[in-house]
């Protein structure tokens, strides 16, 4: 992509040249108009001066001598020696009433008949040269005075004026373009400094940018880059925590699996081998649950992530999720009861997050429920919030441990647990703008209440 400096300079120079062309066109038009007006006035003035000379009160013989003196003087003019080169391009003629040429210059064009119409006109002579002429009719003396000037005199003057005006403008435009180039470079220097700073940074450096002084136009860019670097640091931190947690939590299950595998290889008894296989399968199941919970925690951990909320019927969402858990609960010898009422429960929540939270809460209740126990799930609306309550008939929790049950990797009374289920539920509640509470039931068991906003 073209650089900002080149694009800006191209636009500025283009507009400058366009303006120069428009100004040059206007200058040419105005110069032509003004030169035409001035030279036409001179033609008319010369015609009237010649008329005044021709009106001198002389006798007929003296008039003839006057005309002869005019013609002799005009014929002796040598422009390149004692005159001006333009003399040959300016001419006049005088005709009598009978059409006889009384006075004319040597450079006057050959006209077959005197022009009949007074005033200004454009004439082309026999040599195909264009003349601008003025005809003055003197009816008192029976004279027709013609004063003309070749067009190339005016064209040459216009060309000189335009040339003398254009070249300084062109030279000034080039100088101005160079100054604009340097000015744009100076103006973009902070941006170039920022780019140089970014190029000089180590590829693994995620420290925020602190460029000073910084123009106000670049402050949003620096802020956006710093936000992006902070997000990258957060993502890398989550990845490091996930790897560290996974390594820490999988170390013991893998060691146990290795022990069971070694026992299976060394045992000779069929009963001991079967027992080792059962322990091995149970260990694999525990490791699988641990991996799944670690992955779930990694997906929902970023607190800044915006949940993909959509309009849902919360009761229908909970009912569908419980329907998927019912076969597993029945296989564990447990019963499930759900109470929500028939009224719709509209909400704007992420249904996937609701399913994950409910699965973890029901699984936690099932882990502590006695054989043939009942797990009760209730959904009710309280103002602008919904309360999803899960109750079991287990032993409940100690008051001293209540604050730690929501911590990651803290497990109490469940050898198969990884200590992530309730931590996942808390992360989902925080992400959806709700909260989770744990309390003992008066009749025994644990009550987990997930409170969620309706909107």
Task: Explain what this protein looks like in three dimensions.
The protein is α+β, with helices and mostly antiparallel strands. It has 3 domains: 4-160, Beta-Lactamase (2-Layer Sandwich); 219-299, Helix Hairpins; 307-453, Heat Shock Protein 90 (2-Layer Sandwich), CATH 3.30.565.10. Helices cover 54% and strands 17% of the residues. The protein has helices at residues 4-54, 60-75, 79-82, 151-187, 189-200, 219-266, 270-300, 314-331, 351-368, 421-432; strands at 90-95, 101-104, 119-124, 130-138, 143-150, 310-313, 335-339, 346-349, 374-382, 385-391, 435-440, 446-453. Strands 2-1-5-4-3 form a 5-stranded antiparallel beta sheet. It has a 5-stranded mixed beta sheet with strand order 7-9-10-12-11, with helices on one face. β11 (435-440) and β12 form a beta hairpin. α1 runs antiparallel to α4 (151-187), α8 packs parallel to α9 (351-368) and α9 (351-368) packs antiparallel against α10. It is rod-shaped and about 160 Å long. It starts with a helix and ends with a strand. The model has no long low-confidence stretch (mean pLDDT 77).
Largest sheet: 5 strands, antiparallel
Annotation field: number of helices: 10
The whole-number mean of residue pLDDT values reads 77
What separation lies between the terminal Cα atoms? 46 Å
CATH classification, class level of the largest domain: Alpha Beta
Main β-sheet, spatial strand arrangement: 2-1-5-4-3
